């Protein structure tokens, strides 16, 4: 449960009107109005004097609340308000990781890791072969020169600008926000291979030979007059048809 306290200094003899509102990006909505709760809090919240007790809080209850009190007396009407921010802490769920199964050396490769339930938002740590990867920290570190990747712990991306065969391995990501246990995605292997130049040359030569054979076939057919005979036969048929008419 969560208790939103709202204390005032109005005298007991005054007639009080209490309202609670939730301030959101899309506007302001009533939470407690005209003596009853509205919206998501209906049935699971109660008043504690001028404050609110919320039972079974959820992530949706996070936000900014405003308590507004108006008091009437013989001197007139008095107004007062207080703003409270409620942050509901939620442990992270299992992140979704995207790791390419294969890549060519020298290409740009990006691995991603994300989970959306944690509150506050999770930070991410990538592992290779069970060992946590180091975060690149500027040029003053001697180790930075040997790091071929950029790891963003806020967004969960692991970027290789020029991936190498040494980057082959088994990768997984861990999400944590200080609430509950950290969560890991399943291990995925990325295989980095050199570009098979010889295979590409063989494929190009094979395609060129096939195209050459097709061209020779067409040339041979024309030389033998296959296409000409067919055309003459068609003309003869048309001529006979005209004569019959």
UniProtKB/TrEMBL annotation:
InterPro entries per the UniProt record, alphabetical: Ig-like_dom, Ig-like_dom_sf, Ig-like_fold, Ig_sub, Ig_sub2, Ig_V-set, JAM2
Subcellular location: Cell junction, Tight junction; Cell membrane
GO term, biological process aspect, one: leukocyte cell-cell adhesion
GO CC aspect terms: bicellular tight junction; cell surface; plasma membrane; protein complex involved in cell adhesion
Domain Ig-like span(s) in chain numbering: 1-85, 92-193
Keywords, comma-separated and alphabetical: Cell junction, Cell membrane, Disulfide bond, Immunoglobulin domain, Membrane, Signal, Tight junction, Transmembrane, Transmembrane helix
Membrane topology listed for this record: Single-pass type I membrane protein
UniProt keyword rRNA-binding present: no
UniProt keyword Glycosyltransferase present: no
TM helices/strands, residue ranges: 197-221
Similarity comment: Belongs to the immunoglobulin superfamily.
Annotated protein name in UniProt: Junctional adhesion molecule B
Native source species: Phalacrocorax carbo (Great cormorant)
